[in-house]
Protein 1
Amino acid sequence: MVSNRCKLAVKDELKKLGLHFVLVELGEVEIMEELTPEQRTQLKADLLLSGLELMDDRKGILIERIKNAIVEMVHHSDETLKTNFSDYLSEKLHYDYTYLANLFSEVQGTTIGQFIIAHKIERIKELITYGELNISEIAWKMNYSSVAHLCNQFKKVTGLTPTHFKQLKDKRRNPIEEIGNALENNIETDTP
């Protein structure tokens, strides 16, 4: 589960089965009852219909916990991460980072670092699109050592500089007040 919508979907499915939950968080659920094999099968099927998966194997569960910790930190936290991700993940998940990194690479075919960068870039795109922060503020919020580092990584991943991305975003949208004017201007220039 990587969003609040996912959490709501899981809560709904648990309620449909008459199960009482203590906790529904990103990637984990704690229920009061012991699941019967029939309930487990039904829950698994219902979650699949919602695009979610009931994880049974320990490695798969740990991978999901790693992903959820990263998503939570990058997308859902207003805190600025003052420690590095390896320490953060080790502390949060209670595993040695080397073990987590090796397991993640083995199962996912990519590194934790690459997964983090991909999510940071998506978050940066979101922050640029909102337009509430400038690039310096975004670099600080996303814990980059400098604006140059953020810009270089952004360009490496997207092929665009943050400024070019912002310009493209600005070109895609026209203020409502200008839509009619733009049409009138185009009509005036098109008529002989």
Note: Residues 21 and 150 are 41 Å apart (CA to CA).
Protein 2
Amino acid sequence: MTTQARLLYVDDDEALAFLVRRFLMDAGYAVTVCSAAAEALQKLTEQQGQYDLVMSDIHLPGMSGLEFARKALSHYPELAVLLLSGFIEPEQQQQAALIGVRKCMLKPVNIQDLVAATQNLLRPDLSARA
């Protein structure tokens, strides 16, 4: 018997978050959506890091997705983190890799590509190569 993977999706674009949540739920995942990094950190704390994957936009109000990932990974170093953005500077990709972010993707992201990335990041034998 397998358990449903739990995803935390962080994006201040409510319409996009709604669509991504729906598509990921249709793919069989349990998805919690937060509109701000501080809210997402609170959810991680409440759930004691029991999410299997965190997806976050890089450009968030109040706290960037990079800073959110840094804080989340400092408490839960085994957490799989995927960052998304319409534009990712090379320095941001380098910082993401240094703090342990497993993958960065450009928006707009094709939903099939996002589901495939999710599957790869959740498979322990592939996560190191994603």
Note: The two ends are 26 Å apart (CA to CA).
Protein 3
Amino acid sequence: MSVATTANGRLDYSAASKWLHWITAIIIFGQIPVGFLLDDLPEGRVQDLGYDLHRSFGFVVLCLALARLLVRRIYGVPAAYAGLTPFELRASTFAHHALYVLLIATPLLGWAATSAYPVAVSIFWLFTLPPLAPENEALSKLLFKAHEISALLIVALLVAHIGGALMHRFVKHDGVLARMWPRGRS
């Protein structure tokens, strides 16, 4: 089976959508493990650098997620692949929407938690973000825990998302992965 043409003739996502998707994916694959390892580093310059970079790339993820929503609004998306089962369609829709929410919420939670800690959120040493929360140790701990849970939810959804993409590529051979693959090939 191949991907059917949609009403607007689009078979796959726009080039902008593909670029933003893959850049976000690369950053997330670095952010998640680094985020969980930072507390285990010895206190000092290396740990401080790690936190600075984690916060900076977190802000980039937030900006990319917002840009992705804008690109979806401007260019639209192809219709859901007609060969999906009802379960696959519901699971895919849920995973995509939940990932967008988490790609926005997770950096905001980290930013707010850091603000409440309080530490200034410097973005690549170029500018400092305004605080999102007042200085409050208890609030900071709560927000950091929410940030961590949100990151774990991203991991779970990414496992499902990647698993689904690989199933379509290697089990179903239906061309779904090609819709987001650079140059449209799977």
Note: Residues 89 and 110 are 31 Å apart (CA to CA).
Protein 4
Amino acid sequence: MKIFIENMVSLRCKMLVKSELEKLGIVYKTVELGEVQLFEPLSASNKQLIKAALHKSGLEVMDDQKAMMIEKIINIIIEMVHYSDEQPPTNFSVFLQEKMKMDYHRMAEVFSKTKGITIEHFIILHKVERVKELITYDKLNITEISYKMHYSSVAHLSRQFKQLTGLTPTFFKALSRRERTNLEDL
């Protein structure tokens, strides 16, 4: 059985969910961003206990199919942009369609209506946030970051970065105070 969890967007969230499941004595197969695979269905009382425990930390167990689909799309994007060194070998719409086993146009339509933003723009927001993070760490130069984030050129990265932040990556790097957005707020 799978349960889907809203707002589960980081490795810390995964650790929190594992901890809460273990406290309640609920045995699980896997805990991934946005979903938990259980060995057996939850009882109604255990479902209420896990909902209450996760709610205290800002996480929500989801019941709505569209909400579950949106959350899964978000988690795939976050996993790809923030936690994977390799981008998909195909274009992202094909990658997402294969991962979700759904028609991309249908997913894009539901995502846009629900979130008020296109999947493509959501990806760009996350890529720019990841670029900010990489710039802040100061281990890679802009060219290396551009390559790592699979931009076609440094100019393409710079253009997107400036459109969203109002700053060039070089100017951002020079700032002494770097403001970043929480992933959950994107």
Note: The radius of gyration is 18 Å.
